[in-house]
Design brief:
Elements (H helix, E strand, L loop, with lengths): L1 E2 L13 E3 L3 E3 L6 E3 L3 E7 L4 E6 L12 E9 L3 E5 L7 E4 L19 E8 L7 E3 L12 E3 L3 E4 L2 H9 L5 H6 L5 E5 L3 E5 L3 H14 L7 H19 L1
Parallel strand pairs: 2-6, 9-11
Antiparallel strand pairs: 1-5, 3-4, 5-6, 7-8, 7-10, 8-9, 10-11, 10-12, 13-15, 14-15
Helix pairs in contact: 3-4
């Protein structure tokens, strides 16, 4: 269903709701409304449901709850400055927004490091804030420093499909060729890491090519990249 900002969303109001990109919960009325024009999507996992709007945009705008991948660009006395994309303003990452962080136990990140984080504040006219800790449990929940690997730049819509659509086949097809770690940011960045650099390269090339091709071609594209790297290795040996 196509929706416009302010429209009424259709979902099961008897189940808990997780907010995804493109929607906002009014703190006064508790109404969930779209803030972007696009197609409303509801992913029901049984006990809870995720509601979001699938929309096309080249510029990422932070929204509370978004999972993002950022690059540390500067450090200050109490926080880091983090870039989420080339077309968005930088956001703030507090030294205290990490598991077990304290004044004496601060993270040691440096300029150029990659972090996987969640947007925790995105007020208009104010700098957005991100965190590398699950604020409800105090655990990392998979967030934090991303070491090694490669970053793939993809469209915002493609990143949302990978993150929210459990039936989207790309990662399953990749797993048939190699084991990997992956982090997906709705800001259009995917971090992927394999034990072997050649496999990481094959994953990188596969993701880059698949984002502009029909799903029916994914299997052939991925197999082609892994086969080509294997043939190159055989030739060098």
């Amino acid at each position: 269903m196509y929706v416009l900002p302010g429209d009424e969303l259709v979902y099961d109001q008897t189940k808990p709701v997780v907010l995804g990109p493109g929607v906002y919960c009014d703190p006064r009325t508790q109404n969930i409304i779209p803030v972007n024009a696009g197609i409303q999507k509801v992913k029901d996992s049984g006990r809870k449901q995720m509601v979001y709007v699938d929309y096309d945009s080249k510029r990422y705008t932070p929204s509370v709850g978004d999972l993002v991948i950022g690059i540390i660009t500067n450090g200050f006395s109490d926080s880091y400055r983090v870039s989420l994309s080339s077309f968005s303003n930088s956001v703030s990452l507090s030294y205290m927004a990490f598991p077990n962080a304290s004044k004496k136990n601060r993270p040691t990140l440096k300029v150029g490091d990659l972090v996987y984080a969640r947007v925790c504040s995105a007020e208009k006219e104010l700098e957005a804030e991100i965190e590398c800790v699950d604020s409800t449990t105090g655990e990392s929940a998979g967030l934090g420093l991303l070491e090694g690997g490669m970053i793939v730049e993809v469209s915002l819509g493609f990143a949302r499909n990978l993150l929210f659509d459990e039936e989207f086949p790309l990662l399953l097809l990749l797993s048939k060729h190699t084991q990997f770690e992956v982090a997906i940011g709705v800001n259009g960045k995917i971090w992927i890491k394999c034990e072997e650099v050649r496999d990481t390269m094959a994953c990188y090339r596969s993701i880059m090519d698949c984002q502009s091709k029909p799903i029916a071609e994914y299997k052939t594209i991925i197999k082609g990249h892994f086969d080509s790297l294997k043939s190159i290795e055989d030739d060098t040996n």
